[in-house]
Automatic annotation (TrEMBL):
InterPro entries: DPG_synthase, Glyco_trans_2-like, Nucleotide-diphossugar_trans. Its main location: endoplasmic reticulum. It is a single-pass membrane protein. Keywords: Endoplasmic reticulum, Glycosyltransferase, Membrane, Signal-anchor, Transferase, Transmembrane, Transmembrane helix. SUPFAM superfamilies: Nucleotide-diphospho-sugar transferases (SSF53448). This is dolichyl-phosphate beta-glucosyltransferase. PANTHER family: DOLICHYL-PHOSPHATE BETA-GLUCOSYLTRANSFERASE, GLYCOSYL TRANSFERASE. CDD domains: DPG_synthase (cd04188). It catalyses: a di-trans,poly-cis-dolichyl phosphate + UDP-alpha-D-glucose = a di-trans,poly-cis-dolichyl beta-D-glucosyl phosphate + UDP.
Amino acid sequence: MGFLVTVAELGFSLLLIVFFGFLSVVVFEAWRRRLSYVSVEMVTTLEDPKSLKPIPCPHITEPAEKYLSLIVPAYNEEQRLPAALEETMDYLQDRASRDKSFSFEVVIVDDGSVDGTKRVAFDFVRKHTVDNIRVIPLGKNQGKGEAIRKGMMHSRGQLLLMLDADGATKVTDLEKLENQIIAVAREEYSIRNPASKEMDFRIGDVQVSAFGSRAHLEEKALATRKWYRNFLMKGFHLVVLLAAGPGIRDTQCGFKMFTRAAARKLFTNVHLKRWCFDVELVYLCKRFNIPMVEISVKWSEIPGSKVNMLSIPNMLWELALMSVGYRTGLWKIHQACDTERSS
């Protein structure tokens, strides 16, 4: 009996050591990342592949020059990127031909790809000009969240849409998000500025976010996902509730739109760099009282996904970092870029 007690005590002691050791590592890493939102290198120039001359790189704190920016993070997407870009450019050019007030840009962020992604992206720049398509190469892989953040920070649109390079969500669905954002923004603007006239309203100045969602697919069975994607979606829901609270059913859909004011507020504060940055966006929207709307979008699984079972430990690690970072006060809220500066 005494031997069994000793073994039990030893086992319990080992569990405590592992638990506090893990907690110490999480706290240390959260402390190390406490200034990650301001320590990221900013891009100052972009390359025009036609003239080979550098052009000034815009910043989110400057006034908008386009109506819509589409940010596409790409990591080893040589095979899937061309079809998605062709479909995207066909839609954007068709819309621009019908509406002369509509202007756009596509910002491709090459997240340290080791295949021909950068070459494919620059081929599209040569075809459509650097004013319509721009490439931001990160050099080394930094994660999807950081790639999107870089794209957002250097975009020119009043509305900014993030979408995946695989084209899993039809680009035409952006109009669903756009219409909801406009409706919510007008309502918010009229409440906060009752004496202002309609002509004073600018969509980019009102903080609103719209989250594309695949939650409806579980009931309607409109898409067939691999088993590990279903596992991630269902298992993730409970963890997200604990980390960010309720509000958005599908935080991981890669189809999200923000007004310029909302993007400026959110992406100057994001700390997470990989898969769970979406959850942090939800948390920050709540923290800043930025209105969120969730809109169902059509989605289909495209072969070549980067999400797999090995993503689960990384997701849990990032959620643990986020929880510790914000709950301990190690991760501060950055307020310096709340408004845009004059160009």
